[in-house]
Amino acid sequence: MSDIWREVVIKAVLEKFSPMALKILSDQRVQTLLSQALNFQADMRQNMEAQIKLVARTLELVTRDELSSLRAVVKSLEAEVADLQAELAKAKEAEAAEPKPEKAAPKAAPKAAPKAAPKAAKPKAAPKAAPKADKPKAAPKAKPASEPKPKPVK
User: Fold this and answer.
1) Using CA atoms, how far apart are residues 35 and 37, in angstroms rounded to an integer?
2) 8, 56, 86, 104: which could form a disulfide with 61 (CB 3.0–4.6 Å)?
3) pLDDT tens, position by position, 46-62
4) Structural domain of residue 85, as residue ranges?
């Protein structure tokens, strides 16, 4: 890949520069240095991204990779919900298309319902025992006097 890139850059440079610049750029050592500079820039970018990811993990921040994977999960879940909704709609249509069996004619409701027999009176609860005499609570112990707090120095 870097060889193809180098050739493209050299061809572009040959068209735009003076003969002296072309002579310098056609030197193999200069081409090697230019290639190294381009590779160094890419390496620095990758190193910087790795450091940012490390800091993000340390501070428990969400990274781009995590957001991308979360987006993919959300999209798949949305697609699954849409499929299930379509399946449910088809099932409802099929249910509606089926002929419903006719219900038997409703029987005439009785005019007056017989009154229920009165319930037996509930036995009253036994009276509760008299509450126990409360024991007097001991007075809270006084805290020993603490030393006065020093005032902050400005």
Assistant:
1) 5
2) 56
3) 999 999 888 988 998 88
4) 62-96
